[in-house]
Amino acid sequence: MARKKAFHNTAFGSALLDSLRVIVLAIIPILIISLQDRTLDWRQLAIVGGVALLKFIDKYLHKSDIAEKGLTRF
Fold this sequence. Notes:
Layout: H1 11-37, H2 42-63
Helix pairs in contact: 1-2
């Protein structure tokens, strides 16, 4: 009987957790500035989302052995 891998040990799960870490670490300073100015800059959120998406793609490609060195190849 084959054992299932834990979610964080799969390529998708590992990539998702890495991109969520990027989002959490990047959103904290954005929220602090937004609370001070009482405005929300959607461009900053879009940039954070784009970086998190690229991190997800890179990690997924690396872990799933589609591209051994990931998206950037170094």
